[in-house]
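Data card: per-record layout.
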Amino acid sequence: MKITPRNHNKAAIQKHITDFCTWFNEASVKKGLGIQLDGSDVNKSIEAKRGREIEELNDAMQYHMVHKEQVLTAVEVIHNTIENPGMSGLVIGALQSGKTGTAFTSLFAAPIHYLKSKISYVPMFLTTNQNSHLQQTQDAMRAFFRLYGDISIISDGRKNSLIDYYGEYDVDLAEASDIEEITLEDYSYALVRDMYPGKGKDVVSALVEGMTVKRQNKDINTKIRSLCDKAKKNGHGVMLIVDEPQFGASDRFSRDGKNVKCLLSKIIDEIDDDFFSPYTPNFMVGLSATPFDSARIDSLFKVRQRLNENYIGPNFFDGQAIDPSISNKAPNVYSFSDIGHLLEQKDFTELSYLLGNRENPINSKYQSIKVAKDGNKSFRSMSENLRHGAELVRTLLDALVDEKEEAYPDDHIGALLRLSNNRYQTDVILDEMGLNSPDSPYNVIRFYDNSEDIKELVWRHTKDDPRPYIVVAVGKGRMGDAFPTGCCISMDLTHKSSDANAFLQGVFGRMCGYGKKEPVVIVSDLNKEMWQEYSTTLGQMASFKSSRHAVERVVEKGKNKKVSYFMISNDMIDNEPADSPLHMLRFETVRYLESQKLSQPTSNQHVPKRYGDDLYLNLPEIMEKYNIIEYVRENAHRLAPELIGDIEIVPFNEQVEHISNKKDDNGIRHRSMLGYDLSDDKTQCRVNVSKADERAVGRSRSQNYAVPHQSIGKERGSITPVITVVKENEAGEKVEPDQFGKFVFESIHFLLKRQVKHYNPGVTELSPVLGHAFTDAMSDQEKASQFGTYLHAAMLGGRKELSLLEALGTDQMQRSLGNLFDRNTHTYSVYDDVIVFENIETGAIENNVGPAIIRLNDFKNVIGETIKAEPEFEEEVLERSYSM
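The structure for this 884-residue chain is written out next.
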């Protein structure tokens, strides 16, 4: 064991304490919080510290210090809890963006409430169900108290006691002492004295261990219940802080159809069965980067996490920026097809199939073929497929690690691999990759055989091993696991994530954070498409499911298909700058058309046939002279923002692979290479001229417009560009093809090297699923919208369409209705497309649980109405309801 001297820089710690207070105070002034922090006494005490005490402060600052962005976010959270008593809220953060530091700083809300609202709150910090996360949270929280616990919290004297207000609703709270200054440590001591008598000597440990709980039934039935009982007994409110509130947030149904309440609902019920009511003091602050299920609940306040320019990851959610004040980068995401294209190895596209992670290949025409020394071709066996797939992964891994080590020679480079969904298959793949052998060039760390914190696990395995390390995950490697900054390569070789939440919280999310070394993420083609949609829509999902805790209804359909060509249209060129080479491409193409018979006025609706030299255009010369292919590649996403992918027109000196539908005697499909039909001197290229879609005449067209399918590429065994024409009259107005006029240039289409995605986002309505923990926080309108989503799916989603009444009779819709009213006191009636809830005893149209009336005449705009029991208005309401 070696003991090395440590540099105990007291001045750096003192400066940080001063900065922390300054950041807080400036934000507090802007928000009018009426609170200031003073760290002068803390800095004086640091000066006197020696030995182990100062060493612990150094460790706390090195590993757990809070940064400016976290402080600013926490002040906004605290301000919301003061301004909106009892209101719960969400911190919408970016992946690995420092939400934990924000959550810890939000603990200042408890003593601030003590000074301002005269209520004392018991913090409860909810982690995941993993022991490693609980221990990680507790260690970090102790460090937080060590650094910031003795900072003075000073009020400006303005108070707004809520004791009497809550007393009117039979909530018995103990009134806080009439003081103007307190510290987090002093507040904690008072809480420990009330909640955990006899443990006052180690205040921080008692509070941290008491307030941090796991999301599991055992803790709910013991620790959480005990904490809530003690809080009520001592007249304290509960401040619930939830890391990733979407996990364990919705009920499930057992095989016998019984409802099994979710963990988060059980916890909320232990605190208060009327938790989300404005008449109780308890509140929750949830922190998540993927709150698809709850972000649109209006009654929850929303705070977006502050970030800085060093953050790597998606800085957007639900259609808007998380922190619009910064410009940052996201990890580089590549699909298996992308890698196959870069390495000129097409088998990468079917990597999931080769490794046994899916039963059939993605491309129905794909065949895994090996070539013998004598040139004979045959199919690979299953074991040969796996070996071949493992070799491909190893080749890719070696290349990526070499590249990162060259770029960052001073960093210990690591990778995160998710090879399969089960351990046995994972070990088999590792064997085939040659990573289990003693002479492996990599230090393999299995993350699925332990519950250790990932940073500690990597440190323990690598401190005496200079080899690049590989962290292998199966089901873990997800939420809350902050990987070291040197771990900048990740591969998920499974086929597809179940939803956007699973993808973002998986290996992709582990590559996000501060200080990452240009991280690279390799995923399946489907997961790459999911990421492209997420980034294109700024965090809204239309084609993919967002979360298993959310239900979607399509309000407006979008476009999501693959295309193999790029269209340069008149409209596109008209919007180009004057020096764009596309103007010259149009000029040359128009000149070519005008030299032919088809430019002559006619009433014939068909494009005149062309023969001989008229079939050829000097496209190769034009494209090279004006650098069109390069221009399109560099400007494609500006020219056609609805196309997603690497857009590159096939050059005239290249060929593309064509797989025939026909098979040889061995069952192997014939493959061939297709090129352009060029003249002998390579200056002319055969082109097709086709009439534009009549439905598009007179309208502005984008890449959505399609030319006749048989004309795109592969014409006569060759690649054939297509020029489309429309008919114009003498006045230059577009007319129908059977009217008198001449055919003129409309667009020109080129085959692409690879298919790209044509995507126009749809509009979806997101609601929490049935049995969600936040159901009681939903407004009547939100409950009506949720009900409409389920009803619409029930009517259209089965083998046959159902009427509204038939759909209402299904088990799922009866469960959905059960969330909207109390069957013991109310009933419902259906009048055409209107559902009305009535009090059984009085017959009054009212509903204390949900909307009293739901209008379903338009599923894109389901309307819920809240109506109290006011007899004088009943007839008017009924008449209005039934007449619509």
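Known properties of this structure: Residues 382-407 form the longest helix (26 residues). The longest strand covers residues 742-760.

See the next section for split statistics.
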